[in-house]
Amino acid sequence: MDNLVRILGTDLGRMLAGLIGVIALVSVNALFLIWMERKVAAHMQLRPGPMEVGWHGAIQTIADALKLMGKELITPAEVDRSVYLLAPIVVFLPVLLSFLVIPFSQTLVIRDMNVGVLLILAFAALTVLAILMAGWASNNKYAVFGSIRSVAQNVAYEIPLLITVMSPILMVGSYRLTDIVAAQEKFWFIVSQPLAFILYITCATAETNRAPFDLPEAESELVAGFHTEYSGMRFGLFFLAEYTNMFIVAALATIFFLGGWRGPVLPGWVWFLLKVYAIIFLIMWFRWTFPRVRFDQLITFAWKILIPLAFANLLLTALVMKLM
Amino acid sequence: MNWLISLITPVGLASGAFIMVVAMTLLGALIAVAARNIFHNVLGLALCLIGVAGLFLYLNSPFVALMEILIYVGAICIAICFAIMLSAPMYLPLPPRHPLKILGALAGAGLVFAFLALLTKKTTWAAASVRSDDWSITTIGHYLLTDYVLIFEVISLLLVVAMLGAVVTARGGRGSS
After folding, report:
1. Chain A, 139-158: which have a CB under 8 Å from a chain B CB?
2. Which of A47, A159, A296, B126 has the most other CB atoms within 10 Å of its CB?
3. What's the CATH fold of domain B12-88?
């Protein structure tokens, strides 16, 4: 028994506590974000949005989630069964893993690894694979179209995203996320890297398949894209992963450009969450401001504008670093 | 009860993780070779590569492990998926497996295996702790740009060859083949 107590006091205990905390955060965050999305959308269109369940419809999403969990899980007859069942699980894995390294405050981080950024970016690749699995296994033309679009888009926007985040990393000289926040003691990196911030937010919006880059799930053309054939909680997992991915890219933006947990008076994690939700609000704002781009515009934009700009920004950063 | 607790000691966890990672690698490799559905082959390959990344992690090189996932799972496997989209439709009947080809593949893979096994056996390995106590990203970066710079550059030739191959294959364009 002593053995057990000793183990729970160490890294393993920290991991377990972290895992429980992360799963709680993921579900609460998704419930909140769906409500926020509906409210933001409604107010931008001069409607009240959900109002009936709870204060200003605050527990509407809980009711929706309960309904979703009670629904039947339908497996279409012609699907590639094993891959079809595996896809919602694979899409959720990288989401959970990314929280391993995100520092919510100076001390509130599950495991402060020296390859933090790389971990998040590497596992994001699994999301692409999962989308492809879902689309292919569904054996439905709309699902396949949606997943192919999604993969082409993700591959195109991952390159400028990676190059863009290299600029602040070059300034800090470390992949560790807490080091990156610590380096912003004097000023936030949005001041010295404004172009990188704009590039990052653009790429992040595309990476999370949000409007105006939401071609993979364009309702008017593709029903629902890669998750057309999923129902009940399997669809719920895709939904949860999507909203959590939004949280993760916003958290990275906060860490890289907005000084992470830094801020006066309030405790660190409050500042962190405030900044994260501010970025998420910005991404939601895009959705009701810009019309959906065409597919050729989307790919041209990534290869001919974003990638050269990201490279220019990186070179300029390196030059300034060398001269200083 | 005691053996259960011994499983969650550091050594127990480490051996458990090792067995899991090796099982993943082998299972993935088997699926990659044996499955008849070409999409399952890629997924098997991805599983195998994640297993290899796990081995790197087990050897305390998280940087190499993450690079393995970023490049091999994130880029190579996705690129293979694009290639699959160009291959024959799956509702067409597959040609039966040719026994001679299987034998040839076995012989080729066996030769590579024997070569690598011999190489591993003949080399006198120095423990990592003897060679250096610092295996951070900085050290790997230094090695790549000093001792191993030639190898590093020669490997990039491979990419040029791949690109030339793609250009040659695509030059004919649609319909002219």
Report:
1. 148, 151, 155, 158
2. A159
3. Four Helix Bundle (Hemerythrin (Met), subunit A) (1.20.120)
